[in-house]
Every structure is written in C-alpha cells, then in structure tokens.
Specification:
Layout lengths: L1 E5 L4 H17 L2 E9 L11 H28 L6 E8 L2 H11 L4 E5 L13 H9 L3 E5 L4
Parallel strand pairs: 1-2, 1-4, 2-3, 4-5
Helix pairs in contact: 3-4
C-alpha cells in the first residue's frame, strides 16, 4: 500500500501525518510526503516586480523544505524512513499537483487535513481538500481536528 501525505505546515496536515504513520505501521505501507509550493508566475501586469516575486517564491520553497524536513524526521523517529520518499512540488494549482503526484506514484490512499492554512473558518472543508477528494484517482482520508 502506498500512502501520500500532502503537507502545508498546518495543524491539520500534522495530524494527517500522524494518522498516516499509524496506518503505515499497522499495514506496512509506504509513505510519500510532499509539500506544494504555489507558483505565482504570470503576474506581469500586477503590482509585483519580478525580483519581489522571486523572493516570495524563495520563501515558499524554503518553508516547504522545512515542512518536509520536519516530517521526514518524524518518519525516521518512527522507523518508517526506509519505505518513504519526499518531494517539494511547484504548481499553479495545489489540488492538481497532489492529484498528479498520486497518479504518477500510483498511490492507493491520500491522507490529508480537511483544512489547510486558510484563515477562513466559514468552511468545514477546505477548497484543496474538497478538490482532491472529488478528483483523486484513489481513496482520500480527510483528517479533522476536534475543537
């Protein structure tokens, strides 16, 4: 069994990683972890200079690397590192990047937070989670946090 865990640094994605680790330990599954860097190109006619856009992209990539590194350390501590891989993916569409990765890697399950970093609490299900659940080539386990 191959499990994909998309991470964004939110409490929801941290909980999703823990759920995936528990499942992997129980089932002997392989875990792939990714963090998607939102691509902000194509904004030439907006008020953001190419240099500023580059700084933002560098910041996003650095944050994604930190998220992956922290998750990788948790996998190693649980003894799961030998069956896992990690990746930072850059894409204009976060849901498409997750779905494409799952298809390419032939994942059997995606375990992800039901919400991400968006500050809006109006929605019970985040837009990324909703799109992934709707269009994924495999089953999707959405993790919620009580509270």
């Amino acid at each position: 069994m191959k499990i994909l865990v998309p991470l964004d640094g939110s409490a929801y994605s941290d909980e999703a990683l823990q759920v995936a680790m528990d499942l992997a330990a129980l089932k002997g599954a392989q875990i792939s972890i990714i963090s998607v860097v939102p691509y902000i190109g194509g904004m030439d006619d907006h008020e953001i200079s190419p240099a500023r856009r580059e700084r933002h992209m560098d910041g996003f990539e650095k944050r994604a690397d930190e998220i992956i590194k922290t998750a990788w350390e948790k996998l190693e501590a649980a003894g799961l590192q030998g069956s896992s891989n990690r990746s930072v993916v850059e894409s204009a569409s976060v849901p498409d990047a997750i779905i494409d990765f799952a298809e390419k890697e032939k994942c059997d399950l995606i375990v992800m937070g039901s919400r991400g970093l968006s500050p809006s609490a109006r929605f019970k299900l985040g837009s990324v989670a909703s799109q992934v659940a709707k269009y994924s080539p495999c089953s999707v386990y959405l993790v919620k946090i009580k509270g």
